[in-house]
Amino acid sequence: MNYLTAGQAAPDFTLNDQQQQPVTLSALLKQQRVLVYFYPKAMTPGCTVQACALRDVKAELAAKGVTVVGISTDAPARLAKFTERDQLNFTLLSDEDHKVADAFGVWGEKKFMGKVYDGLHRISFLIGQDGNIEKVFDSFKTKDHHQVVLDYLG
């Protein structure tokens, strides 16, 4: 698995959100920087911890000029349940065919309990308004992800 690195252009994409409305990266970047975080599966323990922590610091991130967008391979209906259940206050996007994950290089081999399978890796990209990747967050615990991002932003 070779994911994109800082300095590279982020692939533009359009995906449906939890309300089945299309969201385009380039449109979001017209307003401010975007933290695109990939997570394996909505409503699982680790992904819930990560999402709720980002929810709780959304105002701090916005004050630093950053919009949060989560991407998984879940269907929009599952994302809507996740948003409602955990009162998430940011956009979740559905990449069911993992084409966007492939473009960012975050879809690949994983191992869990002795099983090897292809899946989505938990990696985040801070994308500047110029469309280039400013920072890649690839080493963090789910409960600390939000703090790692805030520490980077200063």
What does this structure look like?
This protein has 154 residues and is of the alpha+beta class. The protein has one domain: Glutaredoxin (3-Layer(aba) Sandwich), CATH 3.40.30.10. Helix content is 32%, strand content 29%. The chain contains six helices and nine strands; from the N terminus they run ββαβααβαβαββββα. The chain has helices at residues 25-29, 45-56, 58-63, 76-86, 99-104, 145-153, and strands at 14-17, 22-24, 33-38, 66-72, 91-94, 107-112, 115-120, 124-127, 133-137. A seven-stranded mixed sheet has the order 2-1-5-4-3-8-9. A hairpin with a 4-residue loop joins β1 (14-17) and β2 (22-24).
Characteristic terms for this protein:
two-stranded antiparallel ribbon; seven-stranded mixed β-sheet; 6 helices; 29% strand; 154 residues; 9 strands; Glutaredoxin
